[in-house]
Amino acid sequence: MVELTDRQIKLLKAVIEEYIETAEPVGSQTLDKKYNLGVSPATIRNEMVALTKNGFLKQPHTSAGRVPTPMALKFYIQNLMQQKEMSVTDEVSVKQKIWDYRQKTDKLLREATKALADKTHTLAISTTNTGDVYFAGMANLLDMLEFYDMIATKNLLLILDESDFWWSIFGKDVGEAPFHVIFGDDLKQQFLANCGMVYA
C-alpha cells in the first residue's frame, strides 16, 4: 500500500466522514468549508487527485466529487476510526440480557445478535459452523442513506436466510487479526458493491 502523508491522511479522513454522513460524492468546496484542513481549495483538489491515483478515492461518472474506495474504508477502520470502549453500564446490560441463555446456544446467539444490532444501530449477523444464521436489526437499514435504494435493500433481505452465502464470507480465516473488514467487490454480489462488513 502507498504510504500517505499526514495531510493526505487528514484529507482522506474528512472525505470518508463526510461520505458516511451524506452517502454522496464529496467535493473540494465542501471539504474547504466544513473541515479545517489548513490548506487552499486548490491544494485539496490536487491531493484528491493524488488519492484517486493511489486507489483511495474514485470519481463517479456523474459527479465532480469523490467517494472512498474499499481500500480507503479499510484503512479508515484499521487506522483512523476512534475506538470506543463499552461503558460498564452497557456491558452489564448486555450481559444481563444474555446470561440466562448461556446454556442454550440457539437462544444465546439470537440474543447476542440482537444486542449487537441494538448497540451498533446496524444489521447484525451471526453464523455457526453448522450453517445456522441469526440476524437482527433489519429496521436499522432504513436509517442508512445507502439503503434508501429499495432494490438494494430488498436484495439484501432476500439473502439473509442464505447460510451458504454468509458462511462463504464469515468462514474465511481472519488469521491473527482481531477483526476482518470486507467491502465492495470482495462480497461477490453486485448489489452489495456499496456495502461493507466488519466481522470477527
Please explain how this structure is put together.
The strands form 3 sheets. The chain has a two-stranded antiparallel sheet. Strands 3-4 form a two-stranded antiparallel sheet. The protein contains 8 helices and 6 strands, in the order αααββαααββααββ. The chain is elongated, with a radius of gyration of 19 Å. Helix 1 (6-22) packs across helix 3 (41-53), helix 2 (28-34) packs across helix 3 (41-53) and helix 5 (88-99) runs antiparallel to helix 6. 47% of the residues lie in helices and 10% in strands. The chain has 2 domains: 6-80, Arc Repressor Mutant, subunit A; 88-199, Beta-Lactamase, CATH 3.30.450.40. The protein has helices spanning 6-22, 28-34, 41-53, 70-80, 88-99, 105-120, 150-159, 163-170, and strands at 57-58, 67-68, 124-127, 133-136, 180-183, 196-199. It is mainly alpha-helical and 200 residues long.
Return the string of H and E elements: HHHEEHHHEEHHEE
Rounded mean pLDDT score: 86
For CATH, the homologous superfamily of the largest domain is named as GAF domain
Q: End-to-end span in angstroms?
A: 23 Å
Which topology of the largest domain does CATH recognise?
Beta-Lactamase
**Uncertain residue segments:** none
Helicity range of the residues?
Answer: 40-55%
CATH class membership of the largest domain: Alpha Beta
Q: What's the number of helices? A: 8
Basic shape: elongated
- The strands making up the biggest β-sheet line up spatially as 1-2
Q: Tally of extended strands?
A: 6
